[in-house]
Each structure stands twice: as C-alpha cells, then as structure tokens.
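Standup notes, protein team

Yesterday: finished cleaning the Inquilinus limosus set.
Today: Cobalamin biosynthesis protein CobD structure.
Blockers: none.

Input for Cobalamin biosynthesis protein CobD:
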Amino acid sequence: MPFYPNHLWILAAALLLDAVIGDPPWLWRRLPHPVALAGQLIAWLDRRLNHDGDPTARRRAMGVATTLLLVLLAGGIGWGLSALLRALPFGWVLEIAVAAVFLAQRSLHEHVTAVAAACELEGLEGGRRAVSMIVGRDPQSLDMAGVCRAAIESDAENYSDGVFAPAFWFALLGLPGILVYKAVNTADSMIGHRTARHEAFGWASARLDDALNLVPARLCGALLALAAPFGGGRIGAAWRAMLRDAPKHRSPNAGWPEAAMAGGLGLALAGPRQYHGTVVPDAWMGDGGRAEATPRDIRRALEVTKGAGTVLVLGTMAAALVLS
C-alpha cells in the first residue's frame, strides 16, 4: 500500500490550505461545489416528499427518511472516496484538498471582514447590506451596534459550524465523518426551521444537527475562550460568560461560541432579534457586557477566530505527533 500519513496530519494541512486559499472563485465557477450539490438534492427531496396537505406524522416520517438517506449517501461517498485515495500513490494530497473544501475559515473571515469594511466606509446602510449576506435577521431593524453584534455572532457561531465541527468529525471519522456532518448541517440550514412547512419535515435533520454539534460547540467555545487574548480579550472572562450564559441561549449549541466571544471581548451579544417582522426573544450572552458594539469590535472578533485557527492547527499537529 502507498505511504499514507496519519489523518491528523492531513487535517492540519487541510486547515492550513483552507486558511490560505479558501474557496477559489475560478474553480467553483467551473465546477459545482459539493455543498451546493447537497443543497440541490435536499431541495428536490423537500419538493417531492414534503406536501402541504400531508398529516404531520407523514411529513415527519418523510423527513426522517430524507435525513437517513443523506447520512447514508454522504457516508458512503466518503468511505468510497477514502478507500480510493488510499490506493493511490499520492492520494493523501488529494484528501487534503477534499477536506479543505468542507472547511470555511477563509470564506468566513472574508464575509465578516466585508461587514466591518462596509460599516467603516459606507456607514449604516452599507453595514446593513453586507451583514444581510451572512445573517437571516431583518437588516432594516438593525442600528450600527446591531449590525456589528450580528457580524460578531455570525463569526463565532459559524466558526463552530463551519470550521471546528467539520474538523472535529474529520479527526474522528475521516472523510465519511466530515461529509456526513456537512450534509446534515446543510439540511438543517435549509429545512430545519420551525415554520409551518418545515417544523415536521425538518425535525430529524434539526435534531441530528444538534446532536452532531453537541460536543464540538462546547469544545469550540473553550477554544475561543483560550484565543480571546488574540483580540485583546481575557480568557477568564470568556470562560465565566460561557459557563454562565450559554445554557440560556435558545439554541442548545450556538450559545457556547457566542458566549465565549461575548465574555472574552467584554460585549453583550445575542438578545432579542427580528426575523421576517417577528421579534424572537433570546437571552443576552455576556450579560453585563457592552451592547454598543463597533466595527473595531468586529475586527477584534476576527482576530480571536484567527487565533483560534492557529491554536487548532498547532493542537492538531501536536496530536498527530503523539499518535504517530
């Protein structure tokens, strides 16, 4: 069998590759992104299996079947691809590239940086337009502080969902793990909503996504607390806010990275938000912190997630050395 490095070395290299290159536009203009393909499949299954007139029990059963199909398909593709690459002389190089496709460090950094730049150069309207690209809340309901808080929350939560959790599942299960996680996470983002159409059909994908993020979200919160000094914050304050406030969040997982970021930077994040004209109540993360966030605070948060990325790569490499 050809030489194949420890999969943790592959993960460390994939994290570095994604941080440096990200998702090259020239490539994805010519090829469909795997996550986009998964989204197309989920949308097709939603149209075919989720009918407005169906009883709730049937819609939930169809949602369970859809989620199971996604898990089996993604896991099977990941297993087959892993077996194929291990049979090739330099298959590990391709595995690094494949794993990097399912990480989102650079993409997240660029999108959140765009919000800070728009706020600084164009004011409130520019900030609203930029933040509407990364959050679902009503942009016109946000003042400047609200725009900045939304960007910082997105940076923290999406670092957990888009970087740490995929890396966690790759570390445990290799390509099958990261592909299954991304398929379920994509399904949750598309159909895991408490709306009349998707509350029953998306129940299984939402619950499975919660389960898959249960451990990674808490570990990511700890990592962001450890990285707080990169943004001029304090580890102890981040840790205290996370333990105190995260369980109050309406999401079982999102509160951990958000509260760690809030406490570390001395901010108040989350709280009540408006979606499609409806105010959604939620607890404040970093209760007692400063709610008047600024574009400078967005850039501080970005330094925290960059620092977390550095710690994650170094920690992965250290683990690879120990296990080699």
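Follow-up from PR in the comments: DSSP finds eleven helices and four strands in the chain.
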